[in-house]
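Quick one - first record:
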Amino acid sequence: RPVISRSSDQMTPLPFITHSVEKYLELFHLPQEKLKEVSARLKRDLIRGLGKHSHHRAAVKMLPTFVRATPDGTEKGDYLALDLGGTNFRVLHVRVVEEQQRVLKMDSKICAIPQEIMLGTGEQLFDHIAACLSEFLDSQDLKGQTLPLGFTFSFPCEQKEIDKSILIRWTKGFNCSGVEGRDVVQLLKEAIRRRGDYDIGSVAMVNDTVGTMMSCGYRDQSCEIGMIIGTGTNACYMEEMKNVKRVEGEAGRMCINTEWGGFGDDGSLRDIQTEFDVVVDQTSINPGVHTIIWFQLLKYKDLLLPPFSNEQLFTQRTSERHVFGRNRSTNILTELGVKWDPVDVRVVRLVCDTISSRSARLCAAALATIANRIRVNRGLDHLKTTVGVDGTVYRKHPNFSEELQDTVRLLVPKCSISFLVSEDGSGKGAAMVTAVAQRLALQSRLLEDSDGEDEEVEEDEEEEEDK
């Protein structure tokens, strides 16, 4: 390590960084041509995931959501939203005001799920949810109304219809018996019926990424892509029905939940996988799953200087705080009791910046693939669209969003993409999915009624002609 002055608290320029540090970090650099290759591979995986016979072996699952339209601004009314994805769940009452073109979140309640219920029977879990929903309706004076409900259920499910979703397996510490392999909407409705003191209307199952797209779609009707970049990453978009081979019908569009976090799990990105990706994957809870580090602070034993072997520094919570708080690095290291000097802090900062830069560029390549697919699907020379986006990394990292947006512009110059940060995708977004489903159902009923009238008119006209 070169000898430099320690008299200033100012971060020193980069020349002090040793050749070995630069050698390691060079592995994370993805030039534009390599990003284009990554995008082309994802394009092939998207097509494989949409296929009727190729879906089962696809790394990118491309799950149909049965959401068949985005908001058009005419949605209105009162809705309930239920958000279950951890040890707490939320119940919300959402009012959509058409005249003001905005969603008003009226009120919400957070309910805890005790450990004994998390590990009990499915009936106990859904009875507990139904009881909390009952208390919330009482507090809002809504018991007399039968309101539609958007249900964000953040566990691995196979969705069969907008209101039918089969739990594949429990995660996040839940292990309620009698639920895996069953329709969670049906279980919720049965629990409400057992109570008998209120009822709910139609139910729409909502993925959190879809909720992000839909909450932004009410504010900006050109929003047809949803993206989350937080602890994990995922995206959804509006695909042409004719390309969704696993669902009957060719007319219109359907929102597809890509589950793009699985991209590379089949080894297709091995050429950009570093030795550090391999170590992190092998020591993770789920080896072989989500093998590329989209965003993670790694433990560079050979790279960082001795003071940074402190285990505390590499906990997830600390690493996120370190990356997000650019001006707080020294405070955090001091708080952890790590002896540091400006050179050491600069090295750690450089590692963080390099890894987050790779993450932003990978996300940009994936987003470019989806935007270009929409453009080609619609036969457009130029696409103008909006991405609804959420997640702590996108929201709080000091330069992640800027690098992602700049990279996307370079990769898909034929697409003009705006970005809109979501407001409560699992709450307002879930209500909006329900509102759109109701609007489409009403339109369908109106069409059926008018078709019947046309037939009657035609029969009357034929009778007149016979006379």
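second record:
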Amino acid sequence: MASNASKVPLLRVIAKRGYAAACPRPVGEAAAVQTKQLDNKVVVASAEAQLPVTRVSVVFGAGSRNESYETQGATHLLRVAGGLTNKNSTGFALTRNIQQVGGNLTVTSDREVVAYTVETTANNLEVGLHYLQDVIQPAFKPWELSDSVPFVKNQVATVPPQVQAVELLHKAAFRTGLGNSVYMPKFQIGKLSSETMLHYVANNFTAGRCAVVGVGVDHNALVGFAQSLELPTGGKSSSGANYYGGDARKDTPGNVAHVAVAGQGGAVSNPKEALAFAVLQFAIGSGPATQHGAVNGPFGKALSSAVGDARACFSALNASYSDAGLFGFVVSTDAQKVGNAVDALARSLKSGTVSSDDVNRGKALLKAAVLEAYATDSSLVAEMGLQAVLTKDVQSADALVAAIDSVSQQDVQAAAKKAGSSKLSVGAVGNLANVPYSSDLA
């Protein structure tokens, strides 16, 4: 086992410069955010916490869109390998020492980012940062990767069908890049070698793709920690996303079909349009699926009737990425009735009219969601990390609320027309005998 002693003096030196917790903010109050970009392009952002618990994330723009055909599943394996041996400590030492201080270390990823997050009480921040610095340098021991195969197989086998439909939707829409799944393809399980994974990390865990964000930690201290990270410079940038549209289907036994349909949405690089799509999403209905009931706003009574007649579970879908987006819906219902439901939903998507009441409701719900995210430490650190990597900045809650208020009915109407007029993409899982193809929905 490699000794960790050599790193302790560095952390102690930085600690003397101010590794202290920031003063807690009142419960329920949105956090103020400080942001700084270092000379090596690493973005550092911090905010006060509600409780004496610190959360620090090191986030890389290394999500599944960066995988090639040969490295598909690399980000899934990064999530699994988060608790395994790294270049400075064994998996046992990592787990034992984090648990001894009551901490928690997690690894999450999506199509854009991979995030390593440590949570500790304020007085144990130094220990948490010590192992956070270690865990972003994975070793990928061959025997540990081999031992992880059953766990990966189980994760892939238990992906919910609605999620599978959304994954297939991305494949149909973008083919590669953003079309890559966040889950490892079955044919890749056990095939990614240590050398392949180390190469992926070397190419993607670079300073220009990194952000260090924290909640409940002094900003200057967080800057010092970010400066201590040994990150390579350079590395190629992600290839731009191309939207194609089409179909990706997976037939499975049963009497239920799960279908995701979408057109082009808003990209983060166009914040006004992205916010307009977010308002539209909340105006229609987001979050938990509407089950056998009325559908709000732009899709109106006709859509409510179609969803109700099919006894369908329905939810709007809005995915905004750095340079592309998807907007549409996900529906799950009886295989005999899914055709009518999808047809009605697609027609509504293509001809939806957005009223001022729809826009006002969507804006109110979106603002509530933003304020809730900024008032909760765990969701705040995740939001800060995503913004810092994708935009090189982190907006305050007040700035986001003001931006939402500036979205007009015309902006939302334009968003609806963009999604409806583009070539549709369809991802479907289940009994697909009556599921229409994208060409049938034109």
